[in-house]
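User: I'm writing a tutorial on reading structure tokens. Could you give me a worked example: one chain, its sequence, then its tokens, then a sentence or two explaining what the tokens reveal?
Assistant: Sure. Here is the example chain.
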Amino acid sequence: MDKLYEFLVGPALWAAFTLFVLGLVVRLAYFCGALSKERSGFLHSCADLKWVFGSIIGKLVAIKNVMSGSQPLWGIILFLFHACLLGVPLFLLAHNMLWEEAYSMSLPSLPDSVCDLLTVVFIAANAVLLAARIVRTELRRISTTWDYSLHFLTGVPFVAGFLAYHQIGPYRLILILHIIFAEILLIIIPFSKPGHAIHTIVTGKLKQLQSSY
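And here are its predicted structure tokens:
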């Protein structure tokens, strides 16, 4: 099991991270290439920092509109789900220690107690969203097997990580499951619904560009 662990935090992690980056690059290049045919200045705008920050602000405004709309609680749950999905893995001290040890680079870290709380928040939000897909008829009709699978694939790394951190159950086995499913999630993100964020940002900004070029 030690050799499996070394493989997972070594070559497998590098492979998963490489596929993640390549997937995002390919997806962004595809949308930029397709949309630039409509506006010649679009690719230039992609490299403009003002454009990038404008896109981020646009996404935050969109989230605010959802949270202040007819179903603010639903918007808050969606926001917490996505914020914790990205924030906990990026700013967890244990993850950054591994990156620092292996690759001499890391991000700022949040206190373990904060990440522990955010992990619980994510697990709860994921459970609520899954329950909504099952209970609410309008969501159940448009949900696919892949949608349900994504709840499982995103939930397992957080549940396993929580159990491993608190030393609940067979530690080594749970830790390996945590790493395996986390790397699977890393690979599929660019090709799944979380990856649609890029499409939303790019196509949303194009509408603004059409009025300025």
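What the tokens reveal: Residues 11-36 form the longest helix (26 residues). The radius of gyration is 19 Å.
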